Records
---
Amino acid sequence: MLANSGYGFQYIWPDFPWFASKARPVFAVASGALSMLFLVSFVGSSRRVKKIVVWVNVIMWIYIAIILSFNNKGYQTKWWMYIQYLIPVITLLYVLLVLFFLIRKSWQGNRFAQFYLAGALILITTTIMQASIQLGNFKEWQYFFSNFGLATGYVAESIILTAGLVYRFNQYRKEKEKLLVEMNQRQQEHIRILVKVQEAERSQVANQLHDVAGSLLSAAKLNLSALREKGNISEVAVLHAAKAEEAVGMVSDMVRNLSHALSPVMLEKVGFRTSLEKVVAIVNASGRINIQVIILGFDKYETALNNYYTSLYSVVYELLNNIVKHAGAKHVLVQVTEHADCFSLIVEDDGSGIDPGQLDEKDSMGMTAIQAKIDYFRGYVAFNKNQPTGLIVTIEIPIIRDV
């Protein structure tokens, strides 16, 4: 635009009048070369088209180098005339190539090509109008188009391309949001599989303990009882058999309680309340800690919420296990509440607590499985310091019927 309007000759290089004849072909070809690079970046194209554009650019810049190599004597040769004649041919070929590319892409539904095509058509229209005025047509518009024709076209094209860039940014933002949603869905699916695998492993171990180990221990206890009741052994042997029977009975009870703690095999039969009270009783049996449990609701077992009951039970077990292993607490309060739209769990202890640095190390603190279950159900968990010592864990899990 500077070259065609003569501004370059008047203001940028007034001391070099010989450059005026070079300015128009140099800027015309250079703008075409650069605009083709911008075009394929703006619209998007295949690798093959990009290679073609690169080669066309190389040819155009060679052409520019040839123009700049001419001196004053070179202007008097026929080669300079041939170069001048090539300028409208190159411009026409450039326009046809760009229009073909944009129309093809627009027909394929490329929104960016449609924006670019609209801007290019306006620029081409103003250019044709200015050329027509120079040929003596549209005299009533002569002043406007002769002075502001190309400028108007460039400004209109810039506005349309800016609108296209805004549209492109919005599309990028929507695609990014869509990708984040898909990543979140995949993460939820991975968490669901993780929870399912963990529950399956717990159930398998619990069943082995309950069915195999429990049955063997019961058989051993039965044999010891039968041996003691026969009466054909010494009193010392009877005493030892009674002690062995008692020890086997204790181990059998521990194995059964452990199987119930790992996976609540009786959850559907005795309900969530009884199962939770049992796991608390198991931890209290050690005598090293006193756990008080408050259960509000859970009067009826809903089969549709079995995943919630199982996971909530496992969360309580993991938290109590974490308190016993890491916190060194003496007293714990567990409060589980069933609301119409969510389950809430509050666990308070008077142990050593967890500082903010340790909260970032959930994997080492046994919190990974708990966090995975809460994330799966789109729940909420908060860790707060208890006064004077200890930790308060607050968990809220919304009830979503399709989970």
---
Amino acid sequence: MNIEQVKEVYFLGIGGIGMSALARFFKSRGCSVFGYDRTSTPLTLELEAEGMNIHYEEDVDLIPDGVDLVVYTPAVPKKHSEYQFFLENGYSILKRSQVLGMISSEYKTIGIAGTHGKTTITTLTAHLLQQTPKGVNAFLGGISKNYQSNLLLSPKSEWIVVEADEFDRSFLHLFPQIAVITSVDADHLDIYKNILSLKESFTQFTGQIKPGGQLIIKKGISLNVIQRPGLKVYTYSIDQEADFTIQNLHINKGLYIFDLKLGDTTLKEVELGYPGLFNVENAIAASAAAWLAGATKEEIRRGLLSFSGVNRRFDIRINREDLIYIDDYAHHPAELKACINSVRHLYPDKKITGVFQPHLFSRTRDFADDFARSLELLDEVILLEIYPAREQPIEGINSQMLLDKINKTAKQVCQNDDLLDTLKALKPELLLTLGAGDIDQFVGPIEESL
């Protein structure tokens, strides 16, 4: 299918963060955009305000005539009546990842891969390149706070920055000029079955880097890299000798300041305008990608200081003497650990109350002990019920099971409807909301009530 010929496009699951960026892309090209999603959210309301036609009931009668292309997300179950309708009636149906692959093939692609950190690094890389005279194109896995969008477009730029998502092996539709690999931890075991299978997929991804391209990989990751003609492999690290690293790290007024080493070049006293120790590491990877794509030292320095972050990524919502409230997308044990440790590093004297919504029954089952150890880093633990996403319940797997494994006295399972009252009664000093499900729908109400 030729993307250029598409005039009317339908998104099955339009409210997803990756899907909505594609919808905005097609709308920017003058296409008519329609879609379905299960629930109305602030993001779908924005899409409607931008002129897209969206409905929230599963109903084939609401599908318009003349659809050239149907884009769907794997999060929509195969038995969905609209999906079945498109299938049975011979429509052109493509996965989100296939469409992103087709769009990115027209550009020099920077693909950010890894089981953690993708969204922040993608957004920061795009922000750094946005400082250059030609700007950048980017599909982001979150809403950038600098641009209030998950899509950046620049007709002058030959570069596109995209998240290379390992879920459902989506990243194997990408052929980057520059690739970043941040981490290869066990995850998505419902897709991969084991860590070896996951690593094989990342190895395959390295084989898709274009000849003469560049791979930036976090030092210490054990991965077979497929050697392509002219491929250059670089390492980055926050605390080890590497091609891209930092020195002299310190904090001043809540900002991290450091010397940034980019190959043979060092930028002295760089300030990162975004909190979280793990975001310093993310900044090294993003700076490396932007540097290899041609950003200058001053453009990188300016971009790091002015970066405001991403919604739901170490997102400081309230910052008062008596209360700090941070929201984060962390949904894997390693991400929880990194987030909680970063909070502890910034606020060593505060009592930390964490609300965590587990995401997927299978992930909770596969990593229950690891989740428990990470959540024990909190002073007080509140668990919401598991967000199922695309899954059916698994017998014996629930939030109470996870709570029983956590060695803490201050812990409880809380129903969604009771959360606001529970938090008001607790009067937390430092509150963290964590998870990848619909916990994001609580962020505004929590902010308001506290």
---
Amino acid sequence: MRKLNVLLIMCLVVIVASTVRAQGSPGVNNAELSGNYAFTFNGMTTGGSGASTVFAAVGRFTADGAGNLTNGELDTNGVGPQEKLIAQTFTGTYQIGADHRGVMALNIPGGGTLAFAMMANGNAKFIEIDAAGGHGTVGSGTMEKADPTAYSTAQIMGDYAFGVAGLDGSNNRTAIAGRLTANGAGTFTNGASDVNQSGIFTTWNVFGANYLVTDVTSGRGIMNLPPLAGGVPTNLNFVFYVVNAGKLFAMETDAVTPVTPLLNGAVLQQLTPIGGFSSASLNGGMVIYLTGRAGSGCGGGTGPAPNVLAGLLTANSVGGLNLTYDENCGGAPTSATGLLGTYSLANNGRAAIRVGTNYVVAYVVSPNQAFFIVPDSSVLFGFGEPQAAGSFTNSSVNGRYAGLTTTPATLGVTIFSGEFTADGATPTGNLTGIQDIGAPSGPSSPAANATYSVSSLPANGRGTTAGSFGGNGIMYTVSASKFVVVSLSDPNPAVLIFEQ
């Protein structure tokens, strides 16, 4: 999604063609990608020096099921002027192989080539694979089926929770989580949010904002929030693309400066109970996964390093909780089991969670589903999903999964998408497939082989992994169709999502 010189483009044509051939029978599964889609992308660009700057994109397209993209439109933002595109129209082509891995070429300024992995529901996880020679853009994102009947301001109505995160021009991290009430006529009221800007944590109790769907044919809209982050007191301007009436992909459009971040994330409709949320809205297991970017010293290194965490938070519906988690900060792992804590939940969905001396804020979307933000120096931010009821064993993880590196925090992270098969074997299962890796040095598609073992006691879905995907790691099972993994041995870890 960034301009490359002619020589690099010629090299990439050869590399991408090889990637397509490696899929086997390219194009045989093109019908899997069909209809209207919205997408979001988080990434970084590098100019060959090893340093990186933040980059993000949101947009939409129509896939015809036969390998063609039409009605494409996207917005991008980054540090360089050439990285900012506003409502840029595009067309493109794609091919999906027999193994459900695809390659997509976008006809945009500078070109854009994506590798993606299809899911059973018609959505896809993707990475950018057109960097080479230390130059270009790397990152990951998701494409989700969009509902054109929701392309209007009037359809955005009710209570919404939101979460956005990103870096500023100095690569300092900021995250915001909050909630709003939309009136269906372009006004947000009853706003509340928590902001972590480079370790400075602030809570905003009441604010108003504005939104508008500006294009009812593409689902593109704009959103204006008050100055929630520090620095110059100016409004935060976002562009969004409608996924459906309950979900928007949003990206900040303000110029990126040493103090102004590029924030990207989602707005989700809250399923608010009559009378508002209460402690009963957290009433079971929730798998959480968070990403941060730590400064020097994390894991013994001298530069910035990813800080990632996954865990299981189990609430009892009356203000008590139990937390098990695994964290890796730059190769320095930490694990904790069975920590006891408390929580209080306001009727607008804001939850204050305390485990010992640690404090975490969450904004509830629906029972046991929430955005999480932590007031730490690495600005941990992420999401929690309700864990399916029942016990989990190795046989719970069985079948075909699309895998993805989510929100890479540094250039050293291995950024991949791919298709993998879990055999559900006991006591040790096998996860095999092909990874499509996007790296500054260029794309590659190695085979992946890993083992996994879901604990039988306790049968809470926590397990271990080994092999590909960062060496020794920990997995948390959300359901039979989804699990997350964090490596405990990788000095450049990320949260990995696997979903059927």
---
Amino acid sequence: MTIRCMTTAMLVVGMLGVAGAEDWPTYRHDNQRSGVTAEELNPAGLSKAWVHTPAYPPQPAWSGPAKWDSYAGIVGLRSMRNYDPVFHAIVAEGAVYFGSSAEDCVVSLDAATGNVRWVFVTGGPVRIAPSWERGNLYFGSDDGYAYCIKASDGALVWKYSPAPEQRLIPNDGKMIPLWPVRTGVLVDSGKAYFGAALLPWEAAYLCAVDAATGVPEGSGLYCKTMNNVTMEGAMLASPAKLYMPQGRSAPMVFDRETGGHLGNLEGGGGVFALLTPDMQIAHGPGNKTGWITLSNADTRDKIATVSLGNAMVVTETRSFVLKDTELLALERATGQTLWRTETNHPYTLILAGNVLFAGGGNAVAAFDTQDGRCMATLAVEGLAHGLAAANGALYVSTDTGAVYCFR
């Protein structure tokens, strides 16, 4: 079955109800970066509630891939480090939070009105969305520090840098240390995990600190130094392991308790990654023309590859794969294609209840998980690389810097 969804007109109708409302407290909802929430949103009932437009658009750490590989004759290379094209938003307890790579800060908005609640300024760009945990926000900055601040008013609780010195180098028109924190800060079970690294020929740091104090001392806490690695993109966690994207190289795997390096995943680089409910790991978009590799998260053995995949969401029984020109549903047990739908919304994908939301150019499209039917489109300005669904609303971040709320 092929169903087209090409319109970009926004549907402006009333909200028809919210089931199972919940927060979206970290990048892609949870520490597995699943992009999945049980909350039900009726896409036909969503209309634009507010738009926050900052003074400056995002300033990504990397400008993107080369235009072509002349040696291999390949045009349309995939970006391996496209983790900050927008101001990715999280939502918790009635507030929206995002980090700014342009104004070197974290911003808090009122979720109901879009009004600014407070701004916390750092010494460098904040490229990965904050993580909310027990009334605190945790995030990293290009200034080389991991931060914990109060979600209520932005008051500093602690900040920590693993580097013994803060040598500065020019980067994107700013002076930053050789150890920016571009992994985000992952918080779980009273510990905050992050990496600080930039150049593979310089030292890199993997840290597990006490979430309350920022101190790397105690059981399961550490600050490990390593070489010949990079650490870029939001890290993931299973109960026993940490998974660290590296940009152009395949993600690394670490023992969560000790910080010991357990090896790298198979496949190519990229900063898209998620852990499935049964602890498989998908990552990509590979290299050159792009693919997503699916591996056993414990053994690191490769299970399958998905060609030309940009993003995925995975449930217990189904995988939904977003490509440049189509969205398809696969039965996980058999690999059978259940449906495929043409779409020009290739940038990001999330699942809210029984509805898939895909980000595209100047629009977000909603699809029924049962048959791929396009249910609605919502108009925005710019490329919609960031999506979050929480408490009866859909939040969209675009490369203009704007954050939209549809309710």
